[in-house]
Amino acid sequence: MNDMNDVLKRKNRKYNFGFIDENSKREIRRKILKAVAIPGYQVPFGSRELPIARGWGTGGLQITLSLIGPDDILKVIDQGCDFSVNAVNLKRFIQKTTGVEITEDTLKATIIQTRHRIPEEKMGENQILVFQVPYPEVLRTVEPSEAVTREMHAEMNYSKLWVYLYEEIVKWGEITIGARYPVKVNGRYIMDPSPIPRWDVPKLHMAETLYLFGAGREKRIYAIPPYTRVEPLEFDDFKFNVESFDGKACSLCGSTDTFLDEIFNSETGQKTYICSDTSYCSKVSARKKVSHE
Amino acid sequence: MSKKKILSVKDLNLIHGKKPCGRCLELTGPEVESNICPVCGSIVACADISFDLNEGEILGIVGESGSGKSTIVQCLYFDVRPTGGEAYISCFEEGKVNIFSESSQKKRYMRSNLMGIVYQNPQRGLNFDFSCGGNIAEKLLMAGIYNIKKIRDRSTELLTKTEISTERIDDPPGNFSGGMQQRVQISKALANNPAILFLDEVTTGLDVSVQARVLDLIRQLQRQLGISMIIVSHDLRVIRLLAHRTIVMKNGRIVEMGLTDQILEDPQHKYSQLLVNSML
What we know:
A: alpha/beta, three-stranded antiparallel β-sheet, about 30% helix, B: Rossmann fold, six-stranded mixed β-sheet, about 35% helix, about 25% strand, ATP hydrolysis activity (chain B), nucleotide-binding (chain B), P-loop_NTPase (chain B), ATP-binding (chain B)
């Protein structure tokens, strides 16, 4: 607490450190603890008003603001990019109200807030990854009522979701879910991993990093603690698979082992690919440059 | 036929009402020709229901509308929670645990692994957002079979058995006729080889020729698979065709129970006599 007060005094701020008042932060931290204790379970919390509209990452933002301390180093990404509007706005807001150091280096950050991607570089035990979640309820596609979905979770009654996957396979010959692929956490709850691509789903399994998920509009927090089993739903004879980028490489850094974004040039009609994780891409480019020299 | 009990029901009752007065049971029943308590206005849907179901047996429950026939089946399938009473299933915890006192997870297990139900209204038994194969798959997925090929094979087998063209496996049940929907419901109910099958007014609302085919199918399945069944119907002809033993109900109580032939030939209770005499 003393450290925080020093920071506040030094910077002469009009807001509390991290904008949200300390009691609210404490409530959110308590909810996070509960979420960590019951992996994959959606814990309701009192989503606070923020100077950013709900639906723009306020769930993740509240988690970040409740956890961040003056010595933390923050990274914010939006679809893998450090410089898109949402990421820049959130970053500025957090920095203005806390004064923490900002980085683009995945390995240097202590807290990373993300929208729809997990960084390519492997994160470690001393880091936290905070996800922004638009739709926390994985069963919403098959059941509109919140009262019923809660009961379904309580009873582990996931047959409707399984039928949904069955019908996908019967209709299209594959499961067409691109992002938000349902996963089973610790053999108990089925969870929406937020709209990360399938590419990122295996990174959730037995990870070293604490993963926290915040849905501000829907007022839910959930978590995957480190070293937790996370299995994508799959059939015995129809296994889960990730996106394939066979024969494609990033046109900037040449990586062939990353999640690639397609860039379409409407003038030439040409398709090129670049890494979705921009900071990783520039890191690889810089390394190559050095080795060339 | 073996005489091993598969289901045993004791003193099952269900009272609808905010504050039953405690005298509801003695003030209602066939003697006073009412199931509404004159003191507190509670409705006694069924009371003092005790019976056994033997392995491979078809038990018929017959009675007029509102006599509590369907209530019994709905209680046993956990659609409604009974006010009191016990029931034991021989293949669940060796028949030693009252199934009504179990947790909702255990009840769900019993529903998806030990029981099947066919409702009068297919809207209730089937999910019209899913295909017909998907509906059968739901029951199999509930029981933990996560293999597309196995699910497809089993669905195809069941649809063949219930005389539905397997080409229509991926059609939604909404595109089917009433009789076909009923047969899809039967396929779904049979998916996990249930120990007990509940049939709640399955032929009501179907035309006579379709009725005959559905009844034929039920009889065939019973003979092939030896499933124990409880058939609820207000139609004595259905009961006569299928049931080995029959329960006659009136105002929420059992008024007579015995071999179907005996009840049809020599009904003892006044109401049973009326019922048999008014049969067309």
